[in-house]
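sorry for the late reply, my laptop died twice this morning and i had to redo everyting from scratch. anyway the thing you sent over, i finally got around to it. pasting the sequence first so we're on the same page, its 381 residues, then the predicted structure underneath. double check i copied it right bc i was rushing
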Amino acid sequence: MMNFLKATVPAAVLALAMTGAAHAEIRIGASVSATGPAAFLGDPEFKTLEMLVAELNEKGGINGEQVKLIMYDDGGDANKARTFATRLIEDDEVVAIIGGTTTGTSMSILSVAEDAEIPFIALAGAIEIIQPVRPYTFKTPHTDRMACQKIYEDMVKRGFTKIGMISGTDGFGASMEAQCKNVAPDYKIDIVIDETYDPKDADMTAQLTKIRNAPGVQAVLNPGFGQGPSIVTRNYHQLGIELPMYQSHGVASSGFIKLAGEQAAEGLRLPGTALLIADQLDASDPQQPLVTAYKAKFEERYKMPVDTFGGYAHDALLIVTDAITRAGSAEPKEIRDAIEKTSGLAGATGIYTFSPEDHLGLDLTAFRMLQIKDGGWTVAE
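ok and here's the structure:
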Protein backbone atom coordinates (compact mmCIF):
# COMPACT_ATOMS: atom_id res chain seq x y z
CA MET A 1 0.00 0.00 0.00
CA MET A 2 2.88 2.42 0.64
CA ASN A 3 3.45 2.51 -3.13
CA PHE A 4 0.12 4.31 -3.54
CA LEU A 5 1.33 7.12 -1.33
CA LYS A 6 4.79 7.38 -2.83
CA ALA A 7 3.36 7.39 -6.35
CA THR A 8 0.84 10.07 -5.30
CA VAL A 9 -2.10 8.10 -6.60
CA PRO A 10 -5.32 9.91 -5.60
CA ALA A 11 -6.58 9.00 -2.15
CA ALA A 12 -9.80 7.72 -3.68
CA VAL A 13 -7.81 4.81 -5.12
CA LEU A 14 -6.46 4.01 -1.68
CA ALA A 15 -9.94 4.30 -0.23
CA LEU A 16 -11.33 1.83 -2.72
CA ALA A 17 -8.55 -0.58 -1.89
CA MET A 18 -9.59 -0.48 1.74
CA THR A 19 -13.29 -1.07 1.13
CA GLY A 20 -15.08 -4.36 1.22
CA ALA A 21 -18.39 -5.24 -0.44
CA ALA A 22 -20.24 -2.49 -2.32
CA HIS A 23 -22.98 -1.59 0.16
CA ALA A 24 -23.47 0.89 3.00
CA GLU A 25 -20.15 2.27 4.20
CA ILE A 26 -18.69 4.40 6.96
CA ARG A 27 -16.04 6.84 5.78
CA ILE A 28 -13.12 7.45 8.16
CA GLY A 29 -10.34 9.84 7.16
CA ALA A 30 -6.67 9.96 8.09
CA SER A 31 -3.74 12.29 7.52
CA VAL A 32 -0.40 10.89 8.70
CA SER A 33 3.26 11.64 8.00
CA ALA A 34 4.07 8.42 6.13
CA THR A 35 7.02 10.14 4.42
CA GLY A 36 9.28 13.04 5.37
CA PRO A 37 11.18 13.74 8.59
CA ALA A 38 8.49 12.16 10.79
CA ALA A 39 8.10 9.03 8.66
CA PHE A 40 9.49 6.82 11.43
CA LEU A 41 6.32 7.79 13.33
CA GLY A 42 3.85 8.01 10.46
CA ASP A 43 4.83 4.87 8.57
CA PRO A 44 3.78 2.46 11.37
CA GLU A 45 0.65 4.55 11.88
CA PHE A 46 -0.22 4.18 8.20
CA LYS A 47 0.48 0.46 8.22
CA THR A 48 -1.56 -0.06 11.37
CA LEU A 49 -4.63 1.72 10.02
CA GLU A 50 -4.35 -0.14 6.73
CA MET A 51 -4.14 -3.50 8.50
CA LEU A 52 -6.89 -2.88 11.04
CA VAL A 53 -9.45 -1.53 8.56
CA ALA A 54 -8.87 -4.51 6.26
CA GLU A 55 -9.33 -6.86 9.22
CA LEU A 56 -12.42 -4.97 10.39
CA ASN A 57 -14.07 -5.25 6.98
CA GLU A 58 -13.25 -8.95 6.73
CA LYS A 59 -15.20 -9.40 9.97
CA GLY A 60 -18.24 -7.52 8.66
CA GLY A 61 -17.37 -3.89 9.40
CA ILE A 62 -19.18 -1.85 12.06
CA ASN A 63 -22.79 -2.73 12.78
CA GLY A 64 -22.92 -4.45 9.40
CA GLU A 65 -21.50 -1.52 7.44
CA GLN A 66 -18.14 -1.61 5.68
CA VAL A 67 -15.48 0.98 6.51
CA LYS A 68 -13.85 3.07 3.81
CA LEU A 69 -10.49 4.44 4.96
CA ILE A 70 -9.41 7.55 3.05
CA MET A 71 -5.81 8.30 3.93
CA TYR A 72 -3.42 11.06 2.92
CA ASP A 73 0.32 11.47 3.48
CA ASP A 74 1.02 15.00 4.70
CA GLY A 75 4.79 14.44 4.90
CA GLY A 76 4.88 16.21 8.26
CA ASP A 77 3.85 19.51 6.62
CA ALA A 78 1.29 21.40 8.72
CA ASN A 79 -0.09 23.26 5.69
CA LYS A 80 -0.62 20.03 3.77
CA ALA A 81 -2.30 18.51 6.83
CA ARG A 82 -4.73 21.42 6.95
CA THR A 83 -5.47 21.05 3.23
CA PHE A 84 -6.04 17.31 3.56
CA ALA A 85 -8.31 17.79 6.58
CA THR A 86 -10.44 20.19 4.54
CA ARG A 87 -10.53 17.73 1.63
CA LEU A 88 -11.46 14.84 3.90
CA ILE A 89 -14.41 16.79 5.26
CA GLU A 90 -15.65 18.67 2.20
CA ASP A 91 -14.89 16.24 -0.63
CA ASP A 92 -14.54 12.81 0.98
CA GLU A 93 -17.33 13.39 3.52
CA VAL A 94 -15.71 11.46 6.37
CA VAL A 95 -17.40 11.11 9.75
CA ALA A 96 -14.17 11.21 11.77
CA ILE A 97 -10.47 11.97 11.25
CA ILE A 98 -7.42 10.19 12.65
CA GLY A 99 -3.94 11.64 12.32
CA GLY A 100 -1.69 14.46 13.17
CA THR A 101 1.51 12.44 13.46
CA THR A 102 3.29 15.54 14.81
CA THR A 103 2.16 18.36 17.08
CA GLY A 104 2.25 20.82 14.17
CA THR A 105 0.07 18.72 11.87
CA SER A 106 -2.31 17.89 14.73
CA MET A 107 -2.87 21.56 15.52
CA SER A 108 -3.60 22.25 11.84
CA ILE A 109 -6.10 19.41 11.55
CA LEU A 110 -7.92 20.19 14.78
CA SER A 111 -8.67 23.76 13.72
CA VAL A 112 -10.44 22.45 10.61
CA ALA A 113 -12.19 19.59 12.40
CA GLU A 114 -13.48 21.81 15.18
CA ASP A 115 -14.94 24.31 12.70
CA ALA A 116 -16.69 21.48 10.83
CA GLU A 117 -17.70 19.65 14.03
CA ILE A 118 -16.03 16.40 12.97
CA PRO A 119 -14.46 14.14 15.64
CA PHE A 120 -10.66 14.19 15.46
CA ILE A 121 -8.31 11.78 17.24
CA ALA A 122 -4.76 13.17 17.29
CA LEU A 123 -1.64 10.99 17.40
CA ALA A 124 0.82 13.57 18.78
CA GLY A 125 1.99 14.19 22.32
CA ALA A 126 1.85 17.90 23.12
CA ILE A 127 -0.58 18.88 25.86
CA GLU A 128 -1.79 21.88 23.82
CA ILE A 129 -3.80 19.50 21.64
CA ILE A 130 -6.29 18.72 24.40
CA GLN A 131 -5.77 21.62 26.83
CA PRO A 132 -7.92 23.59 26.76
CA VAL A 133 -10.52 20.92 26.01
CA ARG A 134 -12.07 21.35 22.58
CA PRO A 135 -15.43 19.70 21.88
CA TYR A 136 -14.39 17.53 18.93
CA THR A 137 -10.67 16.90 19.58
CA PHE A 138 -9.29 13.89 21.46
CA LYS A 139 -5.89 12.18 21.43
CA THR A 140 -4.28 8.83 22.18
CA PRO A 141 -0.66 9.45 23.29
CA HIS A 142 0.18 10.52 26.82
CA THR A 143 0.94 14.22 27.07
CA ASP A 144 4.46 15.59 27.31
CA ARG A 145 3.55 16.89 30.78
CA MET A 146 2.74 13.33 31.88
CA ALA A 147 6.07 12.13 30.49
CA CYS A 148 7.87 14.73 32.61
CA GLN A 149 5.93 13.61 35.67
CA LYS A 150 6.68 9.92 35.10
CA ILE A 151 10.39 10.63 34.60
CA TYR A 152 10.56 12.82 37.70
CA GLU A 153 8.85 10.11 39.75
CA ASP A 154 11.63 7.73 38.76
CA MET A 155 14.35 10.32 39.41
CA VAL A 156 13.03 11.01 42.90
CA LYS A 157 12.88 7.29 43.61
CA ARG A 158 16.55 7.05 42.64
CA GLY A 159 17.54 10.07 44.73
CA PHE A 160 18.20 12.53 41.88
CA THR A 161 17.31 16.15 42.59
CA LYS A 162 19.69 18.12 40.32
CA ILE A 163 19.51 17.51 36.57
CA GLY A 164 20.71 18.81 33.25
CA MET A 165 18.33 19.12 30.32
CA ILE A 166 18.97 19.22 26.57
CA SER A 167 15.88 19.73 24.42
CA GLY A 168 15.00 19.85 20.74
CA THR A 169 13.57 23.14 19.47
CA ASP A 170 10.91 21.39 17.37
CA GLY A 171 7.26 21.65 18.44
CA PHE A 172 7.34 18.53 20.60
CA GLY A 173 10.75 19.22 22.16
CA ALA A 174 9.92 22.83 23.01
CA SER A 175 6.56 21.87 24.47
CA MET A 176 8.00 19.10 26.64
CA GLU A 177 10.86 21.33 27.77
CA ALA A 178 8.31 23.90 28.97
CA GLN A 179 6.21 21.24 30.70
CA CYS A 180 9.24 19.70 32.44
CA LYS A 181 10.25 23.12 33.74
CA ASN A 182 6.71 23.75 34.89
CA VAL A 183 6.32 20.56 36.95
CA ALA A 184 9.91 20.32 38.25
CA PRO A 185 9.12 22.20 41.51
CA ASP A 186 6.38 19.66 42.30
CA TYR A 187 9.07 16.99 42.55
CA LYS A 188 11.73 19.26 44.08
CA ILE A 189 13.82 18.84 40.93
CA ASP A 190 16.40 21.56 40.24
CA ILE A 191 17.25 22.01 36.55
CA VAL A 192 20.86 23.12 36.93
CA ILE A 193 21.51 23.67 33.22
CA ASP A 194 19.19 23.77 30.21
CA GLU A 195 20.59 23.42 26.68
CA THR A 196 18.82 23.17 23.30
CA TYR A 197 19.54 21.97 19.77
CA ASP A 198 17.96 22.35 16.37
CA PRO A 199 16.41 19.14 15.00
CA LYS A 200 18.71 19.45 11.96
CA ASP A 201 21.90 19.65 14.04
CA ALA A 202 24.35 16.82 13.37
CA ASP A 203 26.38 17.15 16.57
CA MET A 204 25.47 18.12 20.15
CA THR A 205 28.84 17.61 21.85
CA ALA A 206 29.19 21.31 22.70
CA GLN A 207 25.92 21.39 24.65
CA LEU A 208 26.61 18.03 26.29
CA THR A 209 30.08 19.14 27.36
CA LYS A 210 28.52 22.12 29.14
CA ILE A 211 26.11 19.77 30.90
CA ARG A 212 28.92 17.39 31.89
CA ASN A 213 30.87 20.28 33.39
CA ALA A 214 27.91 21.83 35.23
CA PRO A 215 28.30 21.40 39.00
CA GLY A 216 26.02 19.01 40.83
CA VAL A 217 24.22 17.41 37.87
CA GLN A 218 23.08 13.89 38.80
CA ALA A 219 21.09 12.88 35.69
CA VAL A 220 20.28 14.20 32.22
CA LEU A 221 16.90 14.52 30.47
CA ASN A 222 16.45 14.90 26.70
CA PRO A 223 12.95 16.06 25.64
CA GLY A 224 12.73 15.51 21.90
CA PHE A 225 11.81 13.22 19.05
CA GLY A 226 13.13 12.33 15.61
CA GLN A 227 16.83 11.86 14.89
CA GLY A 228 17.99 14.50 17.41
CA PRO A 229 17.75 12.27 20.50
CA SER A 230 19.67 9.48 18.76
CA ILE A 231 22.50 11.92 18.01
CA VAL A 232 22.39 13.19 21.60
CA THR A 233 22.65 9.59 22.82
CA ARG A 234 25.61 8.79 20.53
CA ASN A 235 27.45 11.99 21.49
CA TYR A 236 26.74 11.30 25.17
CA HIS A 237 28.41 7.91 24.84
CA GLN A 238 31.32 9.31 22.82
CA LEU A 239 32.01 11.88 25.53
CA GLY A 240 32.07 9.13 28.14
CA ILE A 241 29.38 10.76 30.28
CA GLU A 242 28.36 8.26 32.93
CA LEU A 243 25.39 10.12 34.41
CA PRO A 244 22.02 8.34 34.05
CA MET A 245 20.13 9.52 30.96
CA TYR A 246 16.39 9.80 30.33
CA GLN A 247 14.65 10.23 26.99
CA SER A 248 11.02 11.07 26.17
CA HIS A 249 8.25 8.75 24.99
CA GLY A 250 8.76 10.45 21.62
CA VAL A 251 11.56 7.96 20.84
CA ALA A 252 9.96 4.80 22.23
CA SER A 253 10.73 2.48 19.32
CA SER A 254 13.27 -0.09 18.20
CA GLY A 255 14.21 2.35 15.45
CA PHE A 256 15.62 4.73 18.05
CA ILE A 257 17.86 2.01 19.49
CA LYS A 258 19.12 1.20 16.01
CA LEU A 259 19.87 4.85 15.19
CA ALA A 260 21.54 5.57 18.51
CA GLY A 261 23.43 2.29 18.60
CA GLU A 262 22.87 -0.48 21.13
CA GLN A 263 26.02 0.30 23.09
CA ALA A 264 25.25 4.02 23.33
CA ALA A 265 21.61 3.41 24.29
CA GLU A 266 22.34 0.75 26.92
CA GLY A 267 20.82 1.64 30.28
CA LEU A 268 18.84 4.61 29.02
CA ARG A 269 15.37 5.07 30.59
CA LEU A 270 12.12 6.49 29.26
CA PRO A 271 8.37 6.30 29.89
CA GLY A 272 6.77 3.90 27.40
CA THR A 273 3.77 1.70 26.78
CA ALA A 274 2.84 -1.90 27.45
CA LEU A 275 3.21 -2.59 23.74
CA LEU A 276 7.02 -2.40 23.92
CA ILE A 277 7.11 -5.12 26.56
CA ALA A 278 4.16 -7.19 25.34
CA ASP A 279 5.99 -10.49 25.79
CA GLN A 280 6.90 -9.54 29.38
CA LEU A 281 3.37 -8.72 30.56
CA ASP A 282 1.63 -10.88 33.11
CA ALA A 283 -1.43 -12.74 31.81
CA SER A 284 -3.55 -10.84 34.34
CA ASP A 285 -2.58 -7.46 32.86
CA PRO A 286 -5.75 -6.00 31.23
CA GLN A 287 -3.74 -4.85 28.19
CA GLN A 288 -1.94 -8.15 27.65
CA PRO A 289 -4.40 -9.87 25.26
CA LEU A 290 -4.80 -6.83 23.01
CA VAL A 291 -1.14 -5.80 22.76
CA THR A 292 -0.01 -9.38 22.22
CA ALA A 293 -2.51 -9.89 19.39
CA TYR A 294 -1.73 -6.54 17.73
CA LYS A 295 2.02 -7.13 17.94
CA ALA A 296 1.73 -10.61 16.40
CA LYS A 297 -0.50 -9.47 13.52
CA PHE A 298 1.57 -6.39 12.71
CA GLU A 299 4.91 -8.18 12.75
CA GLU A 300 3.59 -11.10 10.72
CA ARG A 301 2.14 -8.79 8.06
CA TYR A 302 4.93 -6.24 7.74
CA LYS A 303 8.01 -8.19 8.88
CA MET A 304 9.12 -5.35 11.13
CA PRO A 305 8.89 -4.68 14.88
CA VAL A 306 5.73 -3.09 16.22
CA ASP A 307 6.25 0.23 17.99
CA THR A 308 4.59 2.81 20.19
CA PHE A 309 3.50 5.06 17.33
CA GLY A 310 1.58 2.39 15.49
CA GLY A 311 -0.07 1.76 18.85
CA TYR A 312 -1.33 5.35 18.91
CA ALA A 313 -3.07 4.80 15.55
CA HIS A 314 -4.39 1.43 16.73
CA ASP A 315 -6.06 3.11 19.70
CA ALA A 316 -7.44 6.01 17.66
CA LEU A 317 -9.25 3.63 15.32
CA LEU A 318 -10.39 1.53 18.28
CA ILE A 319 -11.87 4.59 19.98
CA VAL A 320 -13.74 5.68 16.83
CA THR A 321 -15.09 2.22 15.97
CA ASP A 322 -16.09 1.53 19.56
CA ALA A 323 -17.96 4.84 19.69
CA ILE A 324 -19.80 4.15 16.41
CA THR A 325 -20.74 0.68 17.64
CA ARG A 326 -22.11 1.97 20.94
CA ALA A 327 -23.87 4.95 19.35
CA GLY A 328 -25.46 2.78 16.67
CA SER A 329 -24.82 5.73 14.39
CA ALA A 330 -22.12 7.18 12.16
CA GLU A 331 -23.29 10.76 12.58
CA PRO A 332 -20.31 12.93 13.68
CA LYS A 333 -22.13 14.51 16.62
CA GLU A 334 -23.24 11.13 17.96
CA ILE A 335 -19.74 9.69 17.48
CA ARG A 336 -18.30 12.63 19.44
CA ASP A 337 -20.78 12.14 22.26
CA ALA A 338 -20.05 8.40 22.43
CA ILE A 339 -16.29 8.99 22.49
CA GLU A 340 -16.69 11.34 25.44
CA LYS A 341 -18.59 8.58 27.28
CA THR A 342 -15.89 5.96 26.65
CA SER A 343 -14.99 4.16 29.88
CA GLY A 344 -12.44 1.44 30.63
CA LEU A 345 -11.51 0.82 26.98
CA ALA A 346 -8.23 -1.14 26.91
CA GLY A 347 -5.92 -0.08 24.10
CA ALA A 348 -2.28 -0.54 23.16
CA THR A 349 -1.29 2.68 24.92
CA GLY A 350 -3.42 2.43 28.02
CA ILE A 351 -6.97 2.12 29.31
CA TYR A 352 -9.12 5.05 28.16
CA THR A 353 -11.85 6.78 30.15
CA PHE A 354 -12.91 10.10 28.65
CA SER A 355 -15.16 12.79 30.11
CA PRO A 356 -16.26 16.32 29.17
CA GLU A 357 -13.26 17.60 31.13
CA ASP A 358 -10.74 15.01 29.89
CA HIS A 359 -10.18 14.31 26.19
CA LEU A 360 -7.05 12.22 26.76
CA GLY A 361 -8.54 9.60 29.04
CA LEU A 362 -5.23 8.28 30.40
CA ASP A 363 -3.41 8.73 33.71
CA LEU A 364 0.18 8.05 34.75
CA THR A 365 -0.52 4.35 35.34
CA ALA A 366 -0.73 3.95 31.54
CA PHE A 367 3.00 4.75 31.37
CA ARG A 368 5.58 2.05 32.13
CA MET A 369 9.10 3.17 33.07
CA LEU A 370 11.26 1.25 30.62
CA GLN A 371 14.99 0.70 30.26
CA ILE A 372 17.08 -0.36 27.29
CA LYS A 373 18.97 -3.55 28.01
CA ASP A 374 20.91 -5.69 25.54
CA GLY A 375 19.36 -3.84 22.61
CA GLY A 376 15.76 -4.28 23.74
CA TRP A 377 13.12 -2.96 26.13
CA THR A 378 12.62 -4.10 29.69
CA VAL A 379 10.84 -2.80 32.78
CA ALA A 380 13.14 -0.45 34.69
CA GLU A 381 13.96 -1.57 38.20
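Residues 1-23 have pLDDT under 50 and may be disordered.
thats about all i looked at so far, will dig more tmrw
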